[in-house]
Amino acid sequence: MRRHDYDLFTIGAGSGGVRASRLASASGARVAVAEERYLGGTCVNVGCVPKKLFVYAAGYRGEIADAAGYGWKVAEPSFDWPTLVANKDREIDRLGRVYERILGNAGVEIIDGRATIVDPNTVEVDGKRYSAERILVATGGAPEVPPIAGAEHAFTSNEAFYLPALPRRLAIVGGGYIAVEFAGIFAALGVDVTLLYRGHLFLRGFDDDVRSFLADELTKKGVGLCFNAPVTEISRDGEIYRVAYGRGRSLEVDAVMMATGRRPATAGLGLAEIGVNLDERGAIIVDDHFRSSVPSIYAIGDVIDRVALTPVAIAQGTAFASAHFGGHAPDFDYDLIPTAVFSQPPLASVGLTEHVAHNKHGCVDVYTSTFRPMRHTLSGRDERTYMKLIVDPKTDRVLGAHMVGADAPEIIQSLAVALRCGATKAQFDGTMALHPSAAEEFVTMRQKRSSTEADRPS
Q1: Which among 106, 147, 197, 445 is most buried, taking Cβ atoms within 10 Å?
Q2: Rounded CA gap, 6 and 130, in Å?
Q3: Are residues 215 and 314 in the same domain?
Q4: How far apart are CA 315 and CA 3, in angstroms?
Q5: Is the domain of 125 the same as that of 10?
Q6: 78 Cβ partners below 8 Å, 6+ apart?
Q7: Residues 136 and 12 in one domain
Q8: Residue 453: what pLDDT?
Q9: Same-domain check for residues 268 and 354
Q10: 153 touches 145 (CB < 8 A)
Q11: CA nearest 108: which of 4, 3, 9, 42?
Q12: Residue 232, Cβ neighbours under 10 Å: how many?
């Protein structure tokens, strides 16, 4: 006789939850997924996918301008925001149906509604209770808005994809990848953008040289960058918003976007009430196999606050299903995870920054290259590319690769394979260049310098 309704009950149908549920079901488990908003989670609906579509839209402005240098005569372009939003909505709706089909074909039951955990083996959705041997929390993250006076006047990345119209002037508060990406997107679409960040330089955690280089490139594109500018108040006067920041400074805009980080979406799930340990940010504390302090409760993805990236959540979902329904418990490796900021131009990175490498390995060798991309010799666009390799002089192993420039995410994805295989600088040097390409710079760098200042500020 079965003790529970399900072998696995997943709360959250984002990338990680869907992957774990589908694989568990494929192994013969009885699986249900509860989702209160939309299938596909943040990435599909208000994250990676629509953001990348907006990045494509923003890129056409430069493409059209570049065409003249190659002999193309293009009429004065115009941009229609409602068309982009409508077409984006249609694609997101299509992807939602794809996720529904994937789960259905895998035999996973989809339950619409907000789920709360009643006890270690019981979940309640809209007044109905379900029992499960294991409960997997995969509810992702949500925008975090700091307690700034007037913060209610601002919108977040969730609403950015559905604005009824583009503002003429926009202030973006924050310095993470979301703030930087939307600053480039909106600026390219014709908005007068000012980014306000409390720190001395945005994108904390990325390589310092890369951050500085991208700041220069964004400035060229008309993005106003205000660093060391903590926002203290947002006030409204009719249709105008006044943003107070720094020491007595202020800015008048037509809209304000808060891109001040995300936090694990665990509030109101009933976790603390049944004894699940959470950290100070609300993240679920789990062991190496995603088990919480309550043995029947597990968690993956942004709710465990390890590395908040969609591919990581998917990999965690795979590892969870393998460990608990496949009979194999693989070790999960957080090293050498490539990441990208889809800015204008994009930034991508894998491995250690110079600062971290210096502190971890001592003095390291640093190779850099800065150049004007070949396409802009005729387009006339003032845009440059930057590349950087970090090498351990004791082993010759490449510890990190970083790039700002066109196609950076595509190039760094390939280099991530090389770094994961333990590639050395000699092997980079011995690889034949593919000419003419930007990527060839990574195998032709010869001039090096030594890293310095292990205690540089972040």
Answers
A1: 197
A2: 8
A3: no
A4: 30
A5: yes
A6: none
A7: yes
A8: 60
A9: no
A10: no
A11: 9
A12: 16
Q: What are phi and psi of 222, to 5 degrees?
A: 90, 5
Return the closest-CA partner of residue 191 out of 301, 22, 54.
Answer: 54
Q: Do 12 and 111 belong to one domain?
A: yes
HSE (CB half, 13 Å, CA atoms) of 424? 7
Q: How many domains does the chain have?
A: 3
**Strand ranges (DSSP E) for 177-314?**
192-196, 224-226, 231-237, 240-245, 249-253, 255-258, 262-264, 297-299
Query: Is residue 113 domain-resident?
Result: yes
pTM flag (> 0.85): yes
Task: Judge whether 309 lies within some domain.
Answer: yes
339 occurs within a structural domain: no
pLDDT digits (tens, 9 = 90+) for 102-124: 999 999 999 999 999 999 999 99
Give the strand order in the sheet containing 347-351.
Answer: 339-341, 347-351, 398-404, 385-391, 365-371, 448-450
What is the C-alpha separation between 200 and 209, in angstroms, rounded?
13
Distance of CA 310 to the CA centre of its chain: 8
Paired with 124 in beta bridges are 116, 129
- Whether 328 is catalytic: no
Evaluate whether 23 touches 317 at the Cβ level (below 8 Å).
yes
Reported as type and span, the H/E element at residue 22 is: helix 15-26
Distance separating alpha carbons of residues 233 and 151, to the nearest angstrom = 7
Say yes or no: 215 and 320 in one domain.
no
Q: Are residues 206 and 294 in the same domain?
A: no
Residue ranges for the chain with pLDDT beneath 50:
454-455, 457
Question: What is the pLDDT at residue 456?
Answer: 53
pLDDT of residue 305: 86
Question: Would you state the structure tokens that stand for residue 418, as one six-digit string?
Answer: 């090389």
The whole-number pLDDT of residue 371 equals: 96
Per-residue pLDDT tens digits for 301-357:
999 989 999 999 999 999 999 999 998 888 888 999 999 999 999 999 999 999 999
The two tokens of residue 111 are 């339950």
Residues 6+ apart with CB under 8 A from 300: 16, 17, 20, 136, 137, 138, 290, 313, 316, 317, 320
Query: Which parts of 342-391 are beta strand (E)?
Result: 347-351, 365-371, 385-391
Residues in the chain: 458
65/62 Cα distance (integer angstroms)? 5
Question: Residue 455: what pLDDT?
Answer: 46
Please tell me the distance from the alpha carbon of residue 263 to that of residue 250, in angstroms, as a whole number. Answer: 28
Domain of 132 in residue numbering reads as 6-142+263-325
